[in-house]
Amino acid sequence: MASSVCSALGTDKENLVGKLIAVEENHGSNGNFVLNCLIAEQIQKGGGVCLVALHNSFGHYHNIGTKLGYNLRQLQEKGRVESIEILKLLNGSLNTAHEDGSEQNILFGSEEDTVRNIFHLIEEKIKKILQNIKPVSLVIDDLSDLLCLGIPLKEVLSLLQYCRTLLDSQPGLSLVVLTHVAEGDEQQNLLTAGLCHVADMTVSICGLKTGQSSDVSGAMKVIHRRWDESAVAHEWNRQNLYHFKLLDRQVKVFAPGTASSFT
Amino acid sequence: MNMAVQQTSFQKKSKSRVPYIPGSKQSIQNAQLLVSSGVPSFDHAIGGGIPVGTVVLIEEDKYGTYAKLLLKYFLAEGIVSGHSLIVASQDSDCENLVRELPAPVQLDDSVRTSDSDDKMTIAWRYQNMRVVQSSPTSTSFGHNYDLTKSLDAEILKAADVCYWTGCTGYGQSESRFTNPAYYDLLCTIHNKIEEGQFGVAASPEKRNILRTAVHSVGSPLWTEETHVSSYQQKSDLALFFYCLRSLIRSAYAVCVLTLPSHLFQETSIIKRLEHLCDASVRLESFAGSEKETNPVYKDYHGLFHINQLPAINTLMSHVPESFDLAFKLRRKRFLIEKLHLPPELQETTQREQDDLPSLASGICGVQTRSILDF
C-alpha cells in the first residue's frame, strides 16, 4: 500500500495544508508512484483531490487506485475528486481546428491565453470541491509537459506562481507538483530549480546510477524545508536517501543496501 | 422460494469487459490489452507485447536498416491480424514499403528437428536443471516472417491501409506548429480514428485496432522550409509527440515511430521525446563500426538497448530478465536475445597456456615456460 512512501516523506505526521510538495523526476525514472501514494493518503484522510493530468489519463490513476484501495470514478461522482485532462482537451482542439472561437482550444491562440485558460479551469474546479470537502490537494502531473506543448518557460513558471496564490486565497488547499528533468535540457532544469526553490518539500526520484536492477527500482531523496511542527523539525533541510521497489500493488521503501534479497 | 432468491443474488462476475479483438491478447500480469509487434522476441523483451494506447519509439541504427525492418514486421503483423494501418514517411515511398512486407512463416516449414537433441544424454546431475532460454519459443501470439517472400498482393488489397507521404492540405494557419507536415499527419491520424471508430468512446459493431507506423520522424526531409531555425524544429517535434500521445491514448491504437537520433545535434530533445513516448528502445548496429570484427559479437548484428518500458495503468513497468540484449537477423526471424559470449572453441592467443601439453594428472606443476607467473 501507499503508507511506506508516506511515512518516508513524513506526510503522515504532518498537516499538508498550505504546503507545496515538489516531485522531481529525473530522466530514466518514473516518479508517478509518489503522486499515487499522496492521492491515496489524501483520500484515506477524507480529503479531496483535484488532478491536473498532463502526462497520463484519468483512467491511469483510476486503475492504479483500484489496486491501492480506492475508486476515483466513484469519488468523482461524489464530488470529492475533480480532474482536468489536458490530453483530452488537446484532442478536442484538434477536432475543432477548422472552427474557431472555442475557449479551451489549447493548440491554437497565444501561449499566454492557454496558460490563463488552464489556470481558470483549475481555479474553478478547486472552488467547486472546496464547497464539498476540506482539505483538498491539487496534484499536477508533469508540469514540464507544458514546455513540450510549446509554452515558454516564463509562462509555465507564472502558472506555478498563480497556483501558489491559491494556497493563500483558498484555505485548506495543498499543492503537489511533479516535473520531469533530463540532464542537458536547460529549460527543464530551470523549471525544476524554480519549483524546488519555492517548495516546502522536495522529493527527487532517480534511477540507479549503475544501471537497472531487479531488486531496486530507483532512489528517492527527500528534502524537508519549512516544516513548522516539532515532530519533524529536526529533519529540517536534511537529505534522506531511500531506495524503493515498485510492485504491482504496493511500493516498498527501504534504506540503501537493505533490499529484501540482500539480507 | 426464499432460498432460491438468495442463490440468485450470488452472481458470477462477468468474465471479460474487454472485447476480443483479433491479434490481441490480455497481459497475464496486469490485464492490459496487448498487440504483437511482429517480432516475438521483441514482445518478450518489452513485457509480452505493445499495450494498446501506447506510443513506441525506436531510435534508429546508423543506417536505419534494422529499424526499418522492425517497422515492416510491425505492419506485416497488422495486416495478418486484420488491423487497420497508417503508414507515414517522408524518406521513402510508403506504398513500396507496404508492397515489400514479408510473409508470415507457415508453421510446417518452421518445425525444427528436435529429434537429434533428444538423443543426446545429459549427465544425471544436470537433468533437473532449468533449461536456459535466452529467447521465447512459443509463437501462439505474433508470427515470424520470412524476408525472402513478400505478402500476397490479394491480402494487401483487402487490407485497410492509409498512406501519408506529405502534406495533404489541412489548414493550419493559426496552429502552433511551424512545420505544417506534423500538423497534417496529426489530422490524418485523427480523421482515421474518427472514421474507423477506433476511439475509446465510439461503439462500432466490430472493434479493431489501428496501427500507425511513422518512419524516420524528424529526419532532414521533414523540414520543408530551410529558414526555420533548429529551435523551432525541435519544439515542433516535442509538440507533435505530445499531440500524438493524446491521440493514441484516446483510441484503440498503437503507434511505432522510428527516429534517426544520430542525426540530432542536441541530445536534450531526444530525451524529451523519449519521455513523451511510453516505450523507447535503441538499436545499435555493428555495421560500419569496429564492433563488427570483434569476436565477442560475432553471433549478432547489433545491440538492443531498452531506455524505457510502458507503465500505463500500473505502478510498475515490466522488468526484463536482462538488459544486455543483442539482436540478430535470420532469413525467417528477427531475434532479440540475451547477449551471450561465444564459446571459446578455437585456439586463440589469450588462451595459449591451456593448450600447452598437460602434465600428468595429480601434479600441480608450475609451467616454467610461461612468462607471466600467476
TrEMBL record, chain A:
This is Elongator complex protein 6. InterPro entries: ELP6, P-loop_NTPase. It holds the Pfam family ELP6. One of its GO terms (cellular component) is elongator holoenzyme complex. The lineage of its organism: Eukaryota, Metazoa, Ecdysozoa, Arthropoda, Hexapoda. GO terms for biological process: tRNA wobble uridine modification. Belongs to the ELP6 family. Pathway: tRNA modification; 5-methoxycarbonylmethyl-2-thiouridine-tRNA biosynthesis.
TrEMBL record, chain B:
InterPro entries: Elongator_complex_protein_4, P-loop_NTPase. It holds the Pfam family PAXNEB. Coiled coil: none annotated. Pathway: tRNA modification; 5-methoxycarbonylmethyl-2-thiouridine-tRNA biosynthesis. It comes from the Eukaryota. Keywords: Cytoplasm, Nucleus, tRNA processing. The keyword tRNA processing applies. GO terms for cellular component: cytoplasm; elongator holoenzyme complex; transcription elongation factor complex. CDD domains: Elp4. GO terms for biological process: tRNA wobble uridine modification. Gene3D superfamilies: P-loop containing nucleotide triphosphate hydrolases. It is found in: Cytoplasm; Nucleus. The keyword Cytoplasm applies. Its main location: cytoplasm. Belongs to the ELP4 family. This is Elongator complex protein 4. The lineage of its organism: Eukaryota, Metazoa, Ecdysozoa, Arthropoda, Hexapoda.
